[in-house]
Design a protein that fits this description.
248 residues, alpha+beta, Creatine Amidinohydrolase, 5-stranded antiparallel beta sheet, 4-stranded antiparallel beta sheet, 4 helices
């Protein structure tokens, strides 16, 4: 778990601000009729305009700037001109930007037009789980507290927890140690001062189980029920949790 210097934290905040700019624009443009490839181009242009590099583009062979996961797709959905958002959809936009070598990573789930009460509930519970986890990012305390806070919100909201994927350390690489489970595991890992972790609950309207499609990327729920995904990059500072992926 790498302790970030004052300069590294500054650069991570700048990277995070660029990611937040993308999400600010996504909130404006996501509506029925737009393709996920159009969203990808908008994100690419914002990241490049701000002198950053799209972290996901080419990562492990991923072909695009953002992940666009629609309805039962949990994570790693590939943008396409053929995927047109429609009224009632839920879409997760996962964005990474690298600025002067440091990464900002954040995901948000968006309602497309008017969605069902069930999807509204799923989004509300998942967002609550994210912020409950963030509150536990305190130096010299168990990382398990973050996992427990997320799990408790999921149980309270009666939704499924994706168990194969979770949060992770972040800094010069998008995925660094430690891995963060979204449920209790009995881990003894302790949060170090000024470490950075991407906290990202992925919760489902139905079962916990997921699988990957033939494209090798897109993860979907086994029961084809909707999934929600919210994520912020957070640094455990002595003054409290610092979210880097927001606007000033």
């Amino acid at each position: 778990m790498h302790k970030k210097s004052r300069q590294e934290i500054k650069l991570m905040k700048m990277a995070g601000n660029i990611v937040a700019l993308v999400h600010q624009e996504m909130k404006k443009v996501i509506e029925p009729g737009i393709s996920t490839l159009e969203l990808d181009k908008i994100a690419y242009d914002i990241i490049k305009k701000n002198k950053a590099v799209p972290t996901f583009l080419g990562y492990g062979g991923f072909p695009n700037t953002i992940c666009t996961s629609v309805n039962e797709q949990v994570v790693h959905g590939i943008p396409s001109k053929d995927v047109i958002l429609k009224e009632g959809d839920i879409v997760s936009i996962d964005v990474g930007a690298t600025f002067r070598g440091l990464v900002g990573d954040s995901a948000w789930s968006y309602a497309v037009g008017k969605v069902s009460k069930d999807i509204e509930h799923l989004m509300e519970v998942t967002q609550k789980a994210l912020f409950a986890g963030i509150e536990q990012m305190i130096p010299d305390t168990p990382l398990e507290n973050v996992s427990a806070a997320i799990e408790d919100e999921a149980i309270k909201g009666k939704v499924g927890i994706v168990r194969e994927y979770g949060g992770h350390g972040v800094g010069y690489e998008m995925h660094e140690n430690p891995f963060l489970y979204n449920y209790r595991t009995g881990s003894k890992t302790i949060i170090k001062e000024n470490c950075a972790i991407a906290i990202e609950p992925m919760l489902n309207l139905g079962c916990d189980e997921v699988h990957t499609l033939a494209d090798g990327w897109t993860v979907v729920t086994d029961d084809k029920k909707p999934s929600a995904h919210f994520e912020h990059t957070v640094i455990a500072t002595p003054e409290g949790p610092l979210i880097t992926t927001t606007l000033p």
